[in-house]
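Feature request, filed as a ticket because there's no other form

It would be nice if the structure record came with a short human-readable summary line next to the tokens. Right now we just get the raw output. Example of a typical job, pasted below so the devs can see what we mean:
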Amino acid sequence: MNITQLRDTVSSLLGASPNLLGTYTLPNNTTVPAIYTVGRQGVPPEWKVTGLEATIREFPDVSPKPMVGTLRNRQTWTVVLVDYDAASSKLQTAAQRMARVFPDAVFSSSPESDIAYGQYRIRIPDVQLLNLYPPS
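Raw output as currently delivered:
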């Protein structure tokens, strides 16, 4: 899996009926779905978010393990769901949708408090088998 495939999957999963994704309002008052790929920078601070936001780390964590003639490369993608609507149950519904598509993912939640929004950090494993020595 690559970042484009993961983003497309998360976008279609959370954007399916009923749509759970919130919106970003850009400085020019344009709105776009609240899904963002986090690379060197996070979501621009001038973007206003409402509803449920999904951020995806651009690169996975890798944990290679050599085997006989092959390499088992375990990648772990990180998706963070944050619900900026305190009265909503979208966060739980979104986590349930993610669990159905990624049943081997590890979910850790941070409950909503008076100083933080509720969120789920989802770590999605992705195992690849690669040849150690490419054929000449």
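Something like this underneath would help us a lot:
The radius of gyration is 17 Å.
The chain has a mean pLDDT of 90.
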